[in-house]
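pasting for ref
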Amino acid sequence: MQNFDKKRNKKVFEIIVILKVIYVISSLLAIASFVTFEEQAKDAITITISISIILTILMGYFLWISIYTKNRIDKSPKFLDYLETSILIGMFIIVVFFTGKAESGYKLLSIFIVIISSIQFGKNYGVASSIIQIVAILAISIMFTSGNEEMLRLYFERDLVLSAALFVIAIILGMYVDTEREHSKELRELANKDELTGLYNHRYFQEYLNNTLIEADKNDKEVSLLFMDIDYFKNYNDVNGHQAGDLLLEKIGKILNENMRENDIVARYGGEEFAAVLPDTTEEDAIKIGENIRNAIQQTEFEGQENQPNKNITISIGVSSYPNSAINKHQLINTADDALYRAKSFNKNRVESYHSILYDLCREINIPEETIKSLKTFINMINIKDRYTYGHTERVVIYCKWFAQSIGLSEHDQAQIQIAAYLHDIGKLEIPEEVLNKKGRLTDEEFNMLRNHTQAGVDLIHHIVPLKDFRSIIRHHHERYDGKGYPDKLQKEEIPYLARMITIADSFDAMTSNRPYNTRKSHEEGIQELRANAGTQFDPYLVEKFIEMLEKYKDNF
């Protein structure tokens, strides 16, 4: 739609420029012809100077309209526009005055000004310019034919006909232009809006975000982005029906709009996901706006909300900002999406801002910048390929962080286990998506492929020397305490300590989150499962410490 507007405005601009050029040249030729024939006594030097001045003025004016007028299509008139119209009307009066006054045959030039005014600014502006010219034309006829009733009647009647024509042209052409502009505006609305929610659509969101970032660069401003997703929307659709789901989307769209400021825009990004662009907004202010939205939705009564897992309709929100958390549009969208996924991974109904925990951890144990970039690349690849694995990894990192803190590991080991948690499933990059997301029973070949992800992970980082300390943790996080795990059937203390910790966190999250091939357990059921397998699959001492940690941090779930 933006390309269509550009083409349309370019054509309108070309018409206006042609009309202005013809009008100005015609007016100057009229004056020049009068001076040439009436003042033969003027010498060649004076004529040359006059022509040079006229040409200079012409060139300056044409340059001005080619720059200024180009940006004045479909805009409200400003001081310079009024000034230009006044100059054009003044030029018209001068032409009429010097070419016969009431008898002038150049009064028809007034039609150009009316057409220009109507096309450029619509009916009201065109009518106003026509009235001014009508007054000028009739005034000249009355002033310069007074005392001669026959001439007054002759020229006044002609001028009345011309005046009526000017007025009708201004009204008809102005109404057409206004109608066309209103129609174009409606088309833009249709092209830019989501039909169901009335919010902007994904295409407009991308366009607006791109333009906002350009303006932010020019003015050294921040831009924040909110990514929002309705919690358990699929469940709502399944239980209440798709028609009820559409009504829910529409109602939430209105709430989102009500919580936007003047220059903010909110769009339906896709499905039950929304995005809001907040120009000139810090991340801290964006978080406040996100919390206002979250609270507004949580406190609104929705039909059928009692059937939701949390007995309410809630929304999860991810926040990121430019240029603090991202250096371009693509990265801003990705970081906001990552923050949203983190919010949804931890009990939903929350606002999460983007923060690269991995970056801080790596710097804490002096991992080089280039290695950090490699790690982020691996994690982004996992995110793109399998959103479950990415969300699962994020949750395991948090569990390991709390776990390490609760048992008093050193700061170095705390950082190391969190980085290892980020890396523990990178070997799944080598597994086809259809196997990772398969809902039915895996074949023996597929199961072996899945089991091999520990070695595949080691192979991926084998050439990265600064990550050598993490190889054994990645390789052995599926070993069992009783020696029946894989790949090396290590048992008890043979299994690296941090790997034993990750095994517990990894298994607990796998049990308590939705996966393609199993039913989610509650936290209480997950704890029972850990205890049932303590001494066989898990280190019994670490199991109890992990459960103590869960109790300590239960309010964070």
